[in-house]
Each structure stands twice: as C-alpha cells, then as structure tokens.
Design a protein that fits this description.
The protein is globular. The chain is mostly beta strands.
Length: about 180
C-alpha cells in the first residue's frame, strides 16, 4: 500500500483504523495522512497514519509527515518493527511518532526516507486551519541514499512490491512500499 494525503475524523487513523480483530500492516508507505476533528479543520485525536485498538503486526513501514492533534504517526499498543518515521520540522524521536507501543524491535529509523518527491498539503496561507488545505501528490520511490534501502526484514514481507517488482532485490528488502532497483 502506498497511502498519502488522506484525512480521517476524530479518533481515527488518517490512513488505517483497526478496531478489534487484528491486522498485518507490512511494507507500506504512509505519507502526509491526518486525523482531524470532523468539520472543524483542526487536528483530531488518534494516529495520523494508524489508529489501532487491537493486536496488529506493523513491520517494514515508512511513516512520513503524518499528523494528529497528539502529533503521533501511530497510536497503538502493539509492536512495531523495522520502520522509519520522519516528520519534517519536528524532533524525530520515538516519543514523537508512536503512542504507547507494546514494544519497538528491530531496526527503527527516525530520518528522512529520501523520496524522489514527497507530496504535501498546501495550507493556502492558513497553517492552523486544515479545512481549506489541498493535496499535492508526490513520488514515493526511494533515492539511492535512502536509509530504508536494505533496512527491512524479509520475515513476513510480501514477495513483490507495490509495482509487482520482486522483493527482495539485493538480499534484504526495503522499508516501505517500493523496492529500490537503481532508478
């Protein structure tokens, strides 16, 4: 999954909400998703990318500039592993990206994933009012200097990336939706 520029209501994940049951969220790119208070244009509660009240597997994902009123990309009590979380203009630490994870394991990164061209929300001159923002699409393929190349785990990873390219290409799969093939 490559999910960008989505917005959800109060207490919802901007891209994914898991409420009961379980989910495997593996090798995705979540960029610029938001959880907003419905109808107000103000930041809401919950994860900017994922809100989960159940046990889920969250592995090999990129979380880029996802926002909620609480500021977290992921709001969950489950385990995250082999992910990269980065919000431009914010201190990039675990505390700013994950709320109360069950645990964090494997290689975790808090650095710019180095996309070819990240999408963004155009605030139309009103940065504190989300209601008039418009989405500008991006290209989430990784550049050659990305810390996400070869940084994932092959365990549980899909055999192909979002475009149908084989995974892994060079021994260890990438973090995110796209395998790097030397573009």
């Amino acid at each position: 999954m490559n999910n960008d520029g989505q917005e959800a209501g109060i207490s919802g994940g901007g891209a994914v909400r898991v409420n009961g049951g379980s989910a495997s969220i593996i090798n995705n790119t979540f960029a610029c998703n938001r959880s907003a208070y419905v109808g107000t244009g103000s930041p809401g509660l919950g994860g900017g990318a994922i809100f989960s009240t159940s046990t889920s597997t969250i592995t090999n994902n990129i979380f880029y500039d996802n926002r909620a009123g609480s500021g977290w990309s992921v709001y969950t009590g489950t385990t995250l592993s082999y992910c990269d979380a980065y919000n431009p203009g914010q201190s990039n630490t675990q505390a700013n990206h994950y709320y109360s994870p069950g645990s964090v394991s494997g290689n975790m990164y808090y650095s710019d994933p180095s996309f070819l061209n990240a999408g963004y929300w155009n605030d139309n001159g009103t940065p504190n009012d989300w209601s008039d923002d418009t989405w500008v699409s991006g290209d989430y393929h990784l550049q050659s200097d990305s810390p996400c190349i070869g940084a994932g785990t092959n365990t549980g990873a899909p055999a192909d990336d979002i475009e149908g390219n084989p995974r892994p290409i060079n021994g260890t799969c990438e973090i995110g939706a796209y395998e790097y093939a030397g573009q």
